[in-house]
């Protein structure tokens, strides 16, 4: 965000430019002009969001200049700075939509507060404009934008935290109730089909069959496999029966034997974790003659087997859920496998195997994964430094935090924050 300072007094410009830490106020670059003509040239050539202008200037005064700005660049926020507390000036300022009216000598505390308020107003307006654009595009391209949303959900580009997700849905101009899911079905592709280019005839044929049979479902390609999503309350049929009908059509028309791995009772925040679980199940679970598999049931049975081996019985999936909640609550503390093993009184090999089947990660991998997700969430807050964020997620050494973050994401924390800023997702 850039600001333009306009005053015919050189001393005033120099004081304003040097005495205020503009970067702390959210200003990237400060432009200066000593008369209205020079100011108009800068406004025309540069990207200016805020103007602070004196009123009394030679040739053309500030009111005339800001009237021109309001007519030509109505989105610019205008602030008047003057040594003349004249009521008529105030009336003129109000008539042309001036944001604030400040008096000389400058009270820097007041100036900072006014600029901070202006920056906040601009950011809120930018968000509203972005939401409006997203909303219009969403209505015109609903199918395409929903697929983009679900891909970002599965890749955790959209972080799996309820508050973050709600804000992202609003930012994209979408409605949460239109996106909520009942089922996620993984349709693993093998052989040449898994290597087919995105947008290939084979992918298109699968999407076409699904949409013809069940129009309210969403079929998309992700990581070389097909993902089939059933929206909440949109289908009366049981997902297993839907899968049976779909696989039959694919076998008949495409001469291809697909296998379906599905999950039920799905919340949007759990989509990525459930996908990883189904991917793990698809690698390990296969029975000759069976083509449809209930992933939650299988991961639960693995944990049940481990529990019964210790002379215990119980709900396997509930224990997995409790383990995840424990790790997510203590992610920023020092955790090792022995601590977790003692917590649930299970052999760590059984425990690790069961946990990986349900999440796609070993226990310690999951802790690291969750730390990086929380770091991404914190990096959206520009008030927090990167070294502070490292400490918040359990990495006391800033260089080590940056090293782990880059290993997991391919970019540094600073580069990730920069990408958030460019897309308007920083706060």
Could you walk me through the main structural features you see in this protein, from its secondary elements to its overall organization?
The chain is α/β, with parallel strands linked by helices and 427 residues long. Among the domains are: 2-130, Response regulator (Rossmann fold, 3-Layer(aba) Sandwich); 371-422, Orthogonal Bundle (Arc Repressor Mutant, subunit A). It contains 18 helices and 10 strands. The chain has helices at residues 10-19, 36-45, 62-72, 87-95, 108-140, 142-154, 162-171, 201-213, 239-254, 271-284, 295-309, 316-329, 337-344, 348-359, 363-379, 386-392, 398-409, 413-422; strands at residues 2-6, 29-33, 50-53, 77-82, 100-103, 181-187, 217-222, 225-231, 260-263, 292-294. The strands form 2 sheets. It has a 5-stranded parallel sheet, with helices on both faces. Strands 7-8-6-9-10 form a 5-stranded mixed sheet, sandwiched between helices. The longest helix is centred in the first third of the chain and has 33 residues, at 108-140. The protein is elongated and about 90 Å long. Mean pLDDT is 83; it is low at 309-314. It comes from Eisenbergiella tayi. Keywords: DNA-binding, Phosphoprotein, Transcription, Transcription regulation. The modification 4-aspartylphosphate is found at residue 54.
What's the helical proportion of residues? 40-55%
List unreliable stretches of 5+ residues: 309-314
Alpha carbon gyration radius? 29 Å
Distance between the termini: 14 Å
Q: What's the arrangement of strands in the largest beta sheet?
A: 2-1-3-4-5
Specify the number of helices.
18
CATH class bucket of the domain at 2-130? Alpha Beta
Organism: Eisenbergiella tayi
Pfam families: HTH_18, Response_reg
Domain HTH araC/xylS-type: 321-419
Modified residues (4-aspartylphosphate): 54
């Amino acid at each position: 965000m850039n600001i333009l300072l306009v005053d015919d007094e050189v001393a005033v410009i120099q004081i304003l430019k040097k005495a205020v830490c503009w970067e702390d106020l959210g200003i990237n670059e400060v432009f200066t002009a000593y008369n209205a003509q020079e100011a108009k040239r800068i406004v025309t050539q540069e990207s200016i969001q805020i103007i602070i202008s004196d009123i009394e200037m030679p040739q053309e005064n500030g009111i005339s200049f800001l009237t021109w700005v309001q007519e030509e660049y109505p989105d610019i926020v205008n602030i008047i700075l003057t040594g003349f507390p004249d009521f008529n000036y105030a009336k003129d300022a109000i008539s042309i939509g001036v944001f604030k009216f400040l008096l000389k000598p400058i009270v820097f505390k007041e100036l900072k507060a006014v600029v901070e308020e202006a920056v906040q107003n601009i950011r809120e307006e930018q968000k509203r404009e972005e939401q409006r654009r997203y909303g219009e595009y969403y209505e015109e391209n609903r199918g395409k934008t929903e697929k983009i949303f679900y891909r970002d959900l599965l890749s955790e580009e959209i972080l799996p935290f309820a508050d973050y997700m709600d804000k992202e849905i609003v930012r994209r101009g979408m409605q949460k109730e239109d996106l909520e899911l009942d089922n996620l079905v993984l349709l693993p592709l093998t052989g040449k089909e898994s290597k087919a280019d995105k947008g290939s005839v084979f992918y298109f044929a699968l999407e076409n069959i699904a949409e013809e049979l069940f129009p309210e479902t969403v079929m998309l390609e992700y990581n070389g496999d097909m993902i089939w999503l059933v929206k909440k309350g949109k289908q009366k049929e049981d997902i297993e029966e839907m899968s049976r009908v779909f696989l039959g059509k694919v076998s008949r028309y495409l001469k291809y034997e697909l296998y379906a791995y599905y999950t039920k009772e799905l919340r949007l925040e759990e989509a990525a974790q459930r996908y990883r679980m189904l991917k793990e199940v698809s690698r390990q679970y296969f029975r000759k003659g069976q083509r449809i598999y209930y992933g939650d049931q299988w991961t639960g049975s693995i944990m049940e087997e481990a529990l019964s081996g210790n002379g215990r019985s119980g709900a396997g999936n509930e224990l997995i859920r409790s383990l995840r909640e424990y790790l997510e609550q203590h992610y920023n503390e020092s955790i090792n496998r022995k601590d977790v093993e003692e917590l649930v009184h299970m052999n760590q090999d059984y425990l690790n195997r069961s946990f990986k089947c349900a999440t796609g990660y070993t226990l310690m991998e999951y802790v690291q994964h969750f730390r990086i997700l929380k770091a991404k969430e914190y990096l959206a807050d520009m008030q927090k430094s990167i070294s502070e964020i490292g400490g918040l997620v359990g990495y006391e050494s800033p260089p080590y935090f940056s090293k782990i973050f880059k290993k997991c994401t391919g970019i540094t924390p600073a580069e990730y924050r920069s990408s958030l800023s460019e897309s308007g997702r920083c706060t």
